[in-house]
Amino acid sequence: QMSKLVVSLISAKNLPPADKNGKADPYVWVRLGEEASDNTQQKSKRLNKTLNPEWNEDITIDLSEADLKATLKDLTLHLFVWDYDKLSSDDPLGRFDLELKDVDFSSPITRTDKIKVGSAVISEHPDWAAENKEKCTITYKLSLV
Known about the structure:
This protein is mainly β. The chain is built from two helices and nine strands. Strands 3-2-5-6-8 form a five-stranded antiparallel sheet. The protein has a four-stranded antiparallel sheet with strand order 4-1-9-7, with no helix packed on it. β5 and β6 form a beta hairpin.
């Protein structure tokens, strides 16, 4: 009985600069499905002053605990990339949404997907966007255990 979804956050590349120093302090919220609860979402560790974070961190979602109203194949996995700010509220950098209906979970799968960067970020950093918007990616591995 496969009862845990492990999302191994490997890295991201070419994140938008969110801070005055031209860097960001990125972390990821991993959420399974549309409802945010302690059982369906978890936050990665934060890495400081980088646009190319390497988290190498496993986020485990216990499917039996999550009380999912649907089977895994009916759900969407959301990866929300945020920038930590000490003095103000954290800024969203971008997101990637993966519909699990097309994922073959028979063996672990590693993917690199393009992060969808928010329009506010793009208008704030036009130079970055012109060069890097299409190259902003997240790499992760999915396994059912």
